[in-house]
């Protein structure tokens, strides 16, 4: 029972006790007073009538007339004149005990008895008769009943006013408690909220101060772990001069894209090498040369900051050598990108640099899932060598003619449009299990395959770049969401489904998604929506987006996490169900101790806010053992189970 209801009942009980006590005290006092008045009234009437009848004792008609005149006033139950000698009633006027307008239970409760009086009638010195008078308590009972009703009405009005005022006062005084409840709920949702306005009540003020101190302490611990993790990531995977990824992270990501998996796709790798870096350093000095390298790094950063290029990776290999990994980029777009970079680099030419050669040479090669990374890098060196041999054009693209022909023969737009229009997609499911006990399935990740005109199921890594290029990401996400919800209507088990960043940034499809989720609230405990860390919107927009999705009742998770660890401070405002670590930071963790330190730092930060951590793309038993030792909550990958149709 709520405190407000308890207070209301307490007020009612108090008023009931107060009314009962007041009623019985006043009733007893009034009863005694009324009895005295009735007794006095009866005696006065008897005395007056006795004196009046003394002169008329021998006239029976006059006696009856005088008794009737007194009785008709209505204040008497009975009046009798009795002969003293033989006790014969000479005159009697009486009426039945009838009380109008007063409940019988009240009459019995008050028990106001009629009171009497008597007087003697004399003839000289001789006692002739006796007058007996009984007062009527009807009027006294009616007066007591009216007084009781008035008291009850007044107490009810006071009780109602007390309940209203008490409820308002209680709500006002307990408002800090409601805020503290929201504060505690926010902590359970991994959000840190402080209450800036302190209550005036000293007891509540101390509680609010203690809660704020606890929240600030948790926030400080989380920020400390996040800073430590970001520092480890920067030391391991970031170039100190340009802020780009280093060669190690590039190799990890390239190996990730070369794996044959559902998400793997073709793309291009671009390498940029600044010409005569040693000579520039000698002629211009280290400071100006570093400024040139930083400017090249800023150029590559701008290229990867576009929303549709969030999956690209820019890295500085060493010295004046840079790389750009562009998954999903076709050959024509790769050549346009190389021309754009070359033209921009010429604007960075420093005074004192050689005018007979470009600022930098570029090599571009495609890559395909399944081929060795050494083959890709070997072709890239060949492309750079050819670019240096042809100064008239500072970039060379070693195109893959087989892939180009395959793409020209395959009308991607037509068959993807047909597949999305007619629902030609298949759902594949990959298990996500507990780390400590791999037999306990947490949920299944939903993956998609589209059926081409030949009826062959095409993995997502092959058609997703084309869907993004055609601007059909929202259309594809809606089709996947509808298919997943239809599946859950029949098969009730937990699933996780990814949504693209472009869909979530567009208010029209986002509204459609929210309406679709709101229409099926019974499926909310079974589906978690995942967002790619590489496609996250700005923090303010991300917070509004997460709250909109969470208001539907469905869970929200973050996948492929690790590339932008500086954003971990915003995770406390999102109410995430879990966090999935990118497989690039998991691969070979059993033989690379610094990766273990990095994942351990992430685990410490997320564990401080009770946020489950799941490792992606676990491929070996050694990786699984290390992840178990670190204490991660869940794991997924081909070691656990490949994607399969159900």
List keywords for this structure.
646 residues; Translation Initiation Factor IF3; Alpha-Beta Plaits; TIM Barrel; 3 domains; 19% strand; rod-shaped
3D architecture notes:
The protein is an alpha/beta fold. The chain has 3 domains: 3-160, Translation Initiation Factor IF3, CATH 3.30.110; 238-403, Alpha-Beta Plaits; 410-645, TIM Barrel (Alpha-Beta Barrel), CATH 3.20.20.450. It is 51% helix and 19% strand. It contains 19 helices and 20 strands. The chain has helices at 3-54, 60-71, 104-110, 138-188, 202-237, 247-258, 277-284, 286-304, 331-346, 373-389, 401-409, 412-421, 460-470, 473-490, 501-505, 507-518, 539-550, 593-607, 621-630; strands at 76-83, 89-94, 116-123, 126-135, 245-246, 267-274, 313-318, 321-327, 360-367, 395-397, 425-434, 441-451, 457-459, 495-499, 527-532, 555-561, 578-581, 613-615, 634-636, 644-645. The strands form 3 sheets. An 8-stranded mixed beta barrel has the order 11-12-14-15-16-17-18-19, surrounded by 4 helices. α14 (473-490) runs parallel beside α16 (507-518).
